[in-house]
Amino acid sequence: MLVSNQVILLVCFIYDNHGFNVEVRSTGSDFVESEVQKCISNGIEIWQVNFSISKDGGKINLSIW
Question: What is the model's pTM?
Answer without folding.
Answer: 0.56
